[in-house]
Amino acid sequence: MKRIFLTLAALANVSMLASLILGLQVGDPMTMGGLDPEVNVRIGTHILVGLAALTSVTLVHALLFTYFMGTGRWVEETSQAYSLGKEYHKRNQKLKYGILPGVMLTFLMVLATGCFGAVADPATAVSLVETTGISDSTLHFAMAITTWFVNLIVNFTQYIRIAKNSVIVEAVLAEVRRIRIERGLPVD
C-alpha cells in the first residue's frame, strides 16, 4: 500500500501544484471588459485542473481510509479466529481514526480554496474585500498555497501511519503462521 499511496499522493499534489501555477498565469480577467478569449481559456483550464485536483485529493484520502477499514476488519476477524486478543485491532483502530482529522481538514481546505476562487471571479457579486481587507484573488492564492502545504504534511503523516499499520499486519501474519505451524496446519 505504501507504493500505491506514494504514487497517488504524488499525482494529487502535482495536480494541486499544476492548478496553482495555472492560476498564477491567468492574468487580468477584466482585460477587454472580461471578453479576452485567451484569458477566459486560461481561467477555464485553471478551473478544470482545480476540479481535477479536488477530485484526486479526495480520492487519495478516501482510498486510504478504505484501506484502513479493510485491514481493520481483517485484523479484527483474524484476531478473533486465532484468539490473538484485541491489542492488534486496537492499534489498527488508533491509526485509522488518527488519519480522520487530517482527511477532513484537507478536504475542507480544498473546498474552501475552490469557494475563494469563485469569490475571486470578478463576474460574481460576492466579495470579501470589505470583510478581510485582502483582495479576493490574494485570499484565493493564499488559501491555495496553505491547502497544498497542509496536504503535503497530512500525506506525510498518512504515509507514516501506513508504515505502522504494515507492521501490525505483518505481526498478525507472523502470529497466524506460528499458530498454524503449532497445530500442524498448512502454511503457504
Summary, kept brief:
With 188 residues, the protein is mainly alpha-helical. 81% of the residues lie in helices and 0% in strands. It has one domain.
Protein described:
The protein has helices at residues 2-24, 37-81, 87-120, 129-132, 136-182. The protein is mostly helical. The mean pLDDT is 92.
Radius of gyration computed on alpha carbons: 23 Å
Residue-averaged pLDDT: 92
Q: If helices are DSSP runs of H or I spanning 4 or more residues, what is the number of helices? A: 5
Report the major sheet. none
The count of DSSP E runs of length 2 or more, i.e. the number of strands, is 0
List keywords for this structure.
188 residues, mainly alpha, 5 helices
Fold topology:
Layout: H1 2-24, H2 37-81, H3 87-120, H4 129-132, H5 136-182
